[in-house]
Design a protein that fits this description.
Layout: E1 3-7, H1 17-26, E2 31-33, H2 42-52, E3 55-60, H3 80-96, E4 101-103, H4 114-133, E5 139-142, H5 157-167, E6 172-177, H6 178-184, H7 188-195, E7 199-204, H8 220-229, E8 235-238, H9 246-249, H10 251-256
Helix pairs in contact: 1-2, 3-4, 4-5
Amino acid sequence: MPRLSANLSWLFTEVPFLERFGDAARAGFRAIEFAFAYDVPECAIADRLAEQGLQCVLINAPPGDYAAGERGIAALPGREKEFLASFSTALRYAAALGGPAVHVMAGVVADERRAAARATFVSNLRDACAAARAHGVTVTIEALNPRDVPGYLFSTAAEAHAIREAVGAPNIKVQMDFYHTQVVEGDLARKLERWLPHIGHIQIAGTPGRHEPDIGEINYAWLLRRVDELGYDGWVGCEYRPLTTTIAGLSWRDRLVPLRPTE
């Protein structure tokens, strides 16, 4: 069955960030991912990975002013230098953490500026991919649903893959978050089948509440078997909001995706 990664920005939040690594390992995970931890020295994160025998598979590049509502700056005209500087920081962390993929968020854009923003995003991604390739790092992008992130540059799988094609770099992939895709358009299995060679990471959560994957309208028991049947060899990130506590909610994993002993 697919290999599961614990997203430490969403799971085990009952304890401080650096303590979540141990909780994830004790819960049986062998890989983790997280969004933003740039307030924590990369060496401290690397130490926790080594102590707990964990692999880091994905981080996000800095998003800009998150508290002010920014969700990435890579598509914002006039902020190209700021983006490249922030991406250099992400690559520094990636190097320290064993070379995880780096998710680049585009940003929230007004309707009348979308054409210019898309062109800026493609250009910045080309530069980011060139810098990342020198470090053996994959760059990922992800469609975000407009209910959770109003005004994000793109919200459908087709748009994400069109941007990937426009960038044209060998080390750019698309993240397929089944939660976001279900909210926007559904038809998850067909989209997975169509674009599987270009999908670099999968994330899961129940829809509509973004809680445990066994809560809601997505049949993950079937869908995750299909992921396995198609030969997907990447990680599946658990990026959901526990309904109560993380540990109490993990019973879904034993029913849907039992962890293999070697993972």
